[in-house]
Design goal:
The chain is mainly beta and 200 residues long. The protein has one domain. The protein contains 3 helices and 12 strands. It has a 4-stranded antiparallel beta sheet, with no helix packed on it. It has a 4-stranded antiparallel beta sheet with strand order 7-11-9-10, with helices on one face. A two-stranded antiparallel ribbon has the order 1-4. The structure holds zinc ion. The site of zinc ion has 7 residues, from loops. Zinc ion binds next to loops.
């Protein structure tokens, strides 16, 4: 067995061409917000947030490196697993969890303190795989440790009501305490990085 068989070349959160999202027929709830016309209990999380549907067929077709598979992102982000191999993300007691982000340290002093991220954390072994797989990371990247990174909300498609049913109004980032979350079809979990330090 070679080293490459231990770690996948395609990050687990990457969507494959056989995994096209199915928005499904959305309807307006009488009290406001959206629902699937044929909704089942698995369509919402414990907080009552409605999630985008997508078939699970990793490895089938071609990897779509610019696209994230919603259910896998939600699982690895929720459990602080590695975005590439879905094993435990690298963590230590002193500095917290390891993350790999596009290098934006010139955006504001103290970056990435307090930044919302959709990228799940990573393990040390998978750092080079993630960089190879992502054009943006090939351009620039920063390894970061965040001591805490609470789950704060979701990124998804915001809908608005209309006489003919809900209409997509664009991609939005919404905290769990925002009432607008009833109008969002969630696609990715968001965590906020706190006590974060750039390693390179
Ligand atoms: Zn990994």
């Amino acid at each position: 067995m070679t080293a490459t068989t231990h770690h996948p070349r395609v990050p687990c959160i990457t969507a494959w061409s056989a995994e096209q999202s199915e928005t499904g027929p959305l309807v307006q709830c009488p009290g406001g917000g959206i629902a699937y016309a044929d909704e089942t209990t698995g369509d919402r999380d414990d907080r009552g947030v409605l999630w985008q549907r997508a078939p699970s067929a990793p490895g089938q077709g071609a990897p779509q490196f610019a696209a994230v598979h919603s259910a896998r992102q939600r699982q690895v982000m929720g459990e602080l697993l590695c975005q590439v191999c879905a094993g435990p993300a690298d963590q230590n007691d002193d500095d917290g969890t390891l993350w790999l982000l596009q290098d934006r340290r010139t955006d504001w002093p103290g970056w990435p303190q307090g930044m919302d991220v959709t990228e799940p954390p990573i393990c040390v072994h998978c750092l080079p795989i993630a960089i190879r797989a992502c054009p943006a990371l090939r351009e620039s990247h920063a390894a970061i440790r965040a001591f805490t990174a609470p789950i704060v909300g979701i990124r998804g498609t915001l809908y608005t009501p209309s006489p003919t049913g809900p209409v997509a109004a664009g991609v939005s980032v919404v905290d769990f305490d925002n009432p607008d979350i009833r109008w969002v079809l969630a696609h990715q979990l968001i965590r906020t990085l706190h006590q974060a330090v750039v390693l390179n």
